[in-house]
Specification:
The chain is an alpha/beta fold and about 375 residues long. It is about 40% helix and about 20% strand. It has two domains: about 270 residues, Alpha-Beta Barrel (TIM Barrel), CATH 3.20.20.20; about 100 residues, Sulfite Reductase Hemoprotein, domain 1. The strands form three sheets. Strands 8-7-6-5-4-3-10-9 form an eight-stranded parallel β-sheet. The radius of gyration is 20 Å and the shape is globular. Bound molecules: iron/sulfur cluster. Iron/sulfur cluster binds next to loops.
C-alpha cells in the first residue's frame, strides 16, 4: 500500500515520490548569518528539508530573515521547525516555515495541566492556518512519561509505538492528515522493529526514518544503515536523516551519507551485519543542534570515543549528549551518560547523577569509570 502524500514547501513526500533526505542546523537559531550559511550548505548538498530548533521568542524572531535569505532565485530551502518543550512557539514559527515537528514526549512540560489533545489541536490549527505540514517525532529517550508507565521498564519499543499511534489517531480524528511520523531509537535494531510495526499498523502514514544519536562517522553511518537499508528495501520510509556527531560546518556529511545510502539500496548493496557489534562498546552521541550548550561538545564526544577505544570488546554503553533538553532522558539507559552544560559536564551512572565535571576533567573520569566497570566484569566471570 502506498502512503498518503504530504506536501512540505515545494516537495511532496510519500506516495510514489522519491525518498527525501533531510538534515538539521547545529548553530544558534538567532544567529541568522550562520543559520543561512548552514541551511544553504545542506540544500546544496541535496537536502530537501532543513530543520531548525526554536525554543524561545528570540529564536522565532530570527525566522523572517532566515526565510527571506533562504528563499532566493538561487535556492528555495524548505524549512522545518523543531518545537520541543514549548509547543506555544508554533504560532511564532509557523508563518516562516513549511513544517512543524513536535515530540509527544515533550508536550507535558509546558502548561502541564492542559490535556495533550488540546495542545495537539492547537498545533494542528496553527499548521493549517500557515500551510505547514507536521511531523509527530517520537524518540525513545524522551517518550511520553504516561506511556512509559504503561509498559515494563525495559520495554523501549511499546511506549514509542503506542504514543505514535495515539497521536496519529488523534490528528486523523480532528481532520488533520498532512503529517508524517518518526520513531527513533539509538539501537538500529529497535528502530527497525518500531518502524516495521508502525508501518504494518498504519501503512497509509509516511515515515521519516532515522537512528537517533547514531554517533560520529563511520560508526554513526553504519548504525543508521543497518536499520534504514532494510526499511527502504521493504518500501518503508518517505524521508530520512543520517544523524551524525560532526562539527556544524560539516553537517553536509549527513546529506552525503543519505544520498549514498539511497544509491546503495537501489543497487542492492547492503551493510554486512557484522559491521557493528551490538555486544561491544557502544558510544551513543547526539548530532548536536541549536540547543547545544557548549561548542566543545563535538570535540568532547570524539575525545571520549578515542580514549575509550581500549574497551572496544566490552558490552558497555556511553551516551554523550549536547544539552539538557534531551540529554538527561536520553542518557538514563546508558551505563555511563554525560550531558553537557554551558560550563560543566554532568555524569550519570545507570541513570543516577554522579557529579559535575569540567570539560577538561570528564574524559579521565569516564576512562576511570570504564576501567573500574571492566575490572568488576572480569571478577564476575
Ligand atoms: S541532545 Fe540537545 S543538543 Fe543534542 S541533538 Fe538533542 S536537543 Fe540538540
Amino acid at each position: 500500500m502506498l502512503t498518503r502524500e504530504v506536501k512540505i514547501g515545494n516537495v511532496v513526500i510519500g506516495g510514489t515520490n522519491p525518498v527525501m533526505i533531510q538534515s538539521m542546523c547545529a548553530v544558534k537559531t538567532y544567529d541568522v548569518e550562520k543559520v543561512v550559511q548552514q541551511a544553504n550548505l545542506l540544500y546544496d548538498a541535496g537536502a530537501g528539508l532543513v530543520r531548525i530548533a526554536v525554543d524561545n521568542p528570540k529564536d522565532a524572531a530570527a525566522l523572517p530573515e532566515i526565510r527571506r535569505l533562504t528563499q532566493t532565485d538561487a535556492r528555495q530551502v524548505n524549512l522545518s521547525v523543531d518545537l520541543q518543550e514549548n509547543y506555544r512557539m508554533a504560532e511564532l514559527a509557523a508563518p516562516w516555515v513549511d513544517k512543524l515537528r513536535y515530540n509527544p514526549g515533550h508536550l507535558y512540560h509546558f502548561e502541564p495541566s492542559r490535556p495533550w489533545q488540546e495542545k495537539v489541536q492547537y498545533i494542528a490549527d496553527v499548521a493549517q492556518k500557515n500551510d505547514c505540514a507536521l511531523r509527530i517525532g517520537v524518540n525513545s529517550g524522551s517518550v511520553d512519561p504516561a506511556k512509559k508507565d504503561k509498559f515494563a521498564p525495559d520495554d523501549m519499543l511499546s511506549p514509542m509505538l503506542d504514543s505514535a499511534l495515539e497521536h496519529v489517531q488523534y490528528l486523523d480524528s480532528i481532520g488533520f492528515t498532512r503529517y508524517c511520523v518518526s520513531l527513533k531509537e539509538s539501537d538500529p535494531y529497535l528502530t527497525l522493529e518500531a518502524n516495521r510495526k508502525f508501518a504494518a499498523a498504519r501503512p497509509d502514514v509516511p515515515l521519516h526514518l532515522g537512528v537517533t544519536e547514531a554517533g560520529a562517522p563511520p560508526i554513526g553511518i553504519i548504525k543508521s544503515r543497518l536499520a534504514l537499508e532494510k526499511l527502504l528495501a521493504e518500501g518503508i520510509g518517505a524521508t530520512l536523516r543520517i544523524s551524525l556527531t560532526v562539527p556544524a560546518n560539516e553537517k553536509n556529511l549527513e546529506v552525503e551519507a543519505g544520498k549514498q545510502l539511497l544509491e546503495d539500496v537501489k543497487a542492492g548493496r547492503f551493510t554486512p551485519e557484522n559491521a557493528w557489534d551490538p555486544n561491544g562498546l557502544n558510544i551513543i552521541s547526539c548530532p548536536s543542534c541549536a540547543r547545544v550548550q557548549n561548542s566543545r561538545f563535538v570535540d568532547l564526544a570524539e575525545k571520549i570515543r578515542t580514549a575509550t577505544a581500549f574497551a572496544a570488546q566490552r558490552k558497555f554503553t556511553i551516551a554523550v549528549m549536547g544539552c539538557r533538553v534531551n540529554g538527561p532522558g536520553e542518557s538514563d539507559h546508558a551505563d555511563l551518560g554525560v550531558w553537557c552544560g554551558p560550563e560543566c559536564v554532568n555524569l550519570k551512572k545507570k541513570g543516577q547523577l554522579v557529579g559535575r565535571f569540567s570539560y577538561d576533567e570528564i574524559v579521565d573520569v569516564i576512562v576511570n569509570e570504564l576501567r573500574v566497570a571492566s575490572c568488576e566484569l572480569r571478577e564476575k566471570l
